[in-house]
Design a protein that fits this description.
The complex is a heterodimer of chains A (327) and B (428). By secondary structure, chain A is an alpha/beta fold. Chain A has 13 helices and eight strands. Chain A starts with 24 loop residues before the first helix and ends with a helix. Classes of the chains: A alpha/beta (327), B alpha/beta (428). Chains A and B meet through β1, β2, α3 and α5 of A and β3, α3, α5 and β9 of B.
Chain lengths: 327, 428
């Protein structure tokens, strides 16, 4: 995969010396977000890993203004920041709520839904590491079926499926919604920049592997992210106005087992349980395929959509490689 | 409600040259007009009885273009305060209004607002906490927020609601702390009184646009509220403590400045009524003060040496004023429209606490009255004065007034004899 060349904005706004663990998906997300948006950005961070990663007083790694806020208030505080800027005549600065899955799927869900319904004019980025990692790996509603966490021990792993936050947000009919992955920074940056050019509530759901939480080696973060996409566990897509679904990359449909077996959090799973997960993934993919097929798509939005042909062929190549290395 | 202009107010306030017009309006609308005059830039609110008319009037004002503000109609009080915090840290002047359960839901963010040193102003309509459901006045909702770092004022009249909102922004933006203005549910919130609406240009002189001392600014990126170790947290808390201490002088100065501009004064943290030569003084707050003025007038006319101290600011607590009063009087009765279970009325506790280290400590009595909207009438106040005049010391730590059942096991207070005649419980 080393031969893939990305054209990314060269400026590094995120400073070195932050407090992230090696291989942190959430920190790559912050890095790419800042590359995408530049310095005219205010970031609102609720309780999450990034409450720590940005650095203790008097340090801050983000390089842009950061307001740390209460766990459940990313969307509401960001609404206020944007309103305050607008009231003072600043229509240029982009406001970003940057929250983990717990602050988004669970405790911050009400404020998120409220801000989405009001179509507040900011970008909400959820870096989803599928559990409460900052507090020591407790299950959230973003934790997938079958996963070990400290509150879903291997003897009784999580019995419920992951909450489908994309469908939830799509149901709010927000102008722009996308999923992104640290494995494809060009795609992520393109989506965040697209989001910047759209007004209203924009939501980016980022798949953010967590080596200590998922129990894998830090150097495998990108590989795991790629496998999540290729196995259809985490499809890369965009949804315009909550109804117009666009697939960003055609996944190869690799076995979910390959993705599962790379992570210690799934080590306890039997083959039949993995088959069950494969079934869930296939069913979700079917449902998504129906949505994709039925989407008409407005002409003006088509122009903004990513170049599927080129990207999907590249994805296939990468996926083939991943698969061959797993065998 | 019974309202009289206090001695220090006079009624010249209505005729002062600063007055644009006099409207007969509810307490909630007095708050709304004050928000307009303060040129608030962001309003975020969630409806709760009896606060709703504050935000309904503000919706009219904003949608009519009378106030250039962003009005975020949020999905909860928790989000309302979070929006205020966000807009305030961006440099804007922010406002919200709530009541009771809504205030309780905000609790975590009240700490966040004060800890972030943001000059947010909030109107809270005092309403009893459920269960059982009640929409009527008592003060347990706001007094439960005692330790959040918010300044707290209690208003006696609709004019005072308006004037205190205007004063509050000036105080808040001077000391970098949020301010809560409390008004009694229905007794004030939904009772119409004449209110002098000041001219916008006079308010603008008194309260210029906010100049944020710090804010999220892309030209000068900083992080706010980040993790801090034991080596610095305590100093930040000391600074907050000190800001609240400094607020005492700021409250007094702002009241004087307000008086010079608008012709109305509220005495700063407290207002005293016939305390100069009083032997027995009642300390209370909010609309009960107006009622107590009636009772004091009557008892004075009968020759009883009674007086009244109105607690206008609860945070910061008027330590100096109460200690000074204690030097002059024999007995102080505190009437609390709240109860701290396992202890006593909250203002009674606080009063006791400031007197412990005072050089002179008069007898102190704690009365509980008016919970959940139970009327506090002149008779209620006279019952309390009767008890005070007839007892050298309280018989119990907490004396409940006007309880219907005999469960309290309290004796009927004796009717006092005074130089002007016999005081009866059924009027004079």
């Amino acid at each position: 995969m080393g031969q893939i060349k990305y054209q990314l904005p060269p400026e590094e706004i995120l400073a070195p010396g932050h407090f992230a663990c090696p291989g942190c998906g959430g920190t790559l997300t912050m890095r790419y977000m800042l590359k995408a948006l530049g310095r005219k950005v205010i970031v609102v961070i609720p309780a999450c890993c990034w409450s720590v990663i940005d650095g203790p007083v008097p340090y801050s790694a983000a390089g842009v203004p950061v307001f740390h806020t209460a766990f459940e208030t990313a969307a509401s505080t960001a609404s206020g920041v944007k309103a305050g800027l607008e009231a003072q005549g600043d229509h240029e600065t982009t406001v970003v709520a940057f929250a983990g899955d717990g602050g988004t799927f669970d405790i911050g869900f009400q404020a998120l839904s409220g801000a989405a319904e009001r179509n507040e004019d900011f970008i909400y980025i959820c870096y989803d590491n599928e559990a409460y990692m900052n507090t020591g790996i407790q299950r959230s509603s973003a934790t997938p079926f079958g996963a070990w966490t400290t509150t879903t021990p291997a003897e009784s792993p999580k019995a419920e499926k992951k909450k489908n936050i994309v469908e939830v947000l799509a149901a709010h009919r927000i102008p722009y919604l996308a999923t992104a992955s640290v494995a494809y920074p060009d795609d992520m940056i393109a989506k965040i920049q697209r989001a910047k050019d759209i007004s209203g509530f924009r939501f980016i759901h980022v798949f953010s592997p967590c080596p200590p939480g998922w129990k894998f080696e830090p150097e495998d973060s990108i590989k795991i992210s790629r496998m999540a996409i290729e196995s259809r566990v985490f499809p890369l897509l965009e949804v315009f106005d909550g109804v117009d679904y666009r697939l960003s990359r055609q996944p190869a449909g690799t076995p979910v087992r390959d993705y599962i077996r790379m992570q210690g959090r799934f080590r306890h799973l039997r083959e039949d349980q993995i088959e069950e997960i494969q079934k869930y993934v296939d069913e979700d993919w079917e449902r998504l395929s129906v949505r994709l097929a039925s989407t008409k798509g407005a002409e003006h939005l088509k122009k903004a959509a990513p170049q599927k042909e080129k990207e999907s062929s590249r994805t296939k190549r990468a996926a083939t490689k991943v698969r061959s290395r797993q065998k | 409600m019974i309202n009289r202009m206090s001695k220090s107010n006079g009624n010249g306030g209505l005729l002062h040259p600063s007055v644009d017009r006099v409207l007969v309006i509810e307490g909630t609308h007095a708050a709304s007009y004050a928000v307009k005059l303060a040129r608030v830039q962001v309003i975020a609110a969630y409806p709760i009885t009896p606060q709703t008319s504050v935000v309904e009037k503000l919706s009219e004002i904003v949608s009519g273009g009378e106030l250039q503000a962003k009005f975020i109609k949020v999905e909860s009080e928790h989000s309302a305060m979070a929006c205020c915090i966000g807009s305030s840290i961006s440099g804007a002047r922010a406002f919200t209004a709530t009541s009771s359960q809504g205030l309780a839901l905000m609790h975590e963010l009240l700490h966040w607002a004060a800890g972030s040193r943001l000059p947010i102003v909030m109107v809270n309509v005092n309403r009893a906490m459920a269960p059982p459901w009640s929409i009527y006045v008592d003060h347990n909702d706001s007094l439960s927020q005692r330790d959040t770092g918010w300044l707290q004022f209690y208003a006696e009249s609709n004019q005072e609601v308006m004037d205190t909102v205007l004063q509050a922004y000036k105080i808040a933006e001077t000391v970098s702390l949020p301010v809560m203005i409390n008004l009694d549910a229905f007794v004030l919130s939904h009772t119409s009184e004449p209110v002098a609406i000041p001219k916008q240009e006079v308010v603008d002189e008194f309260l210029p646009a906010r100049k944020a001392l710090f804010k999220v600014d892309t030209a000068d990126p900083k992080a706010f509220g980040a993790l801090i170790g034991p080596d610095a947290y305590m100093e930040m808390r000391y600074k907050l403590f000190q800001a609240m201490e400094d607020a005492r002088a700021v409250i007094r100065d702002v009241d004087l400045e307000f008086s010079a501009k608008f012709g109305r004064s509220y005495g700063g943290l407290v207002e005293e009524y016939f305390t100069e030569d009083a032997e027995v003084v009642l300390l209370t707050s909010a609309t009960a003060v107006s009622t107590a003025r009636i009772a004091v007038d009557e008892l004075r006319s009968m020759g009883f040496p009674v007086g009244l101290m109105k607690l206008r600011a609860f945070r910061p607590f008027p330590v100096d004023e109460i200690r000074a009063l204690a030097q002059r009087v024999k007995k102080i009765g505190v009437m609390d429209r709240n109860i701290s279970f396992g202890a006593t009325g909250i203002i009674y506790q606080e009063t006791k606490a400031v007197l412990y280290n005072a050089p002179v400590r008069p007898s102190l009595f704690g009365f509980i009255a008016g919970l959940g909207g139970r009327d506090i009438t002149p008779e209620t106040i006279k019952e309390i004065f009767s008890y005070l005049l007839n007892h050298d010391e309280p018989e119990r730590e907490t004396i409940w007034i006007s309880l219907k059942s005999d469960s309290a096991g309290q004796e009927e207070p004796p009717i006092p004899e005074g130089p002007g005649g016999r005081m009866k419980s059924e009027g004079v």
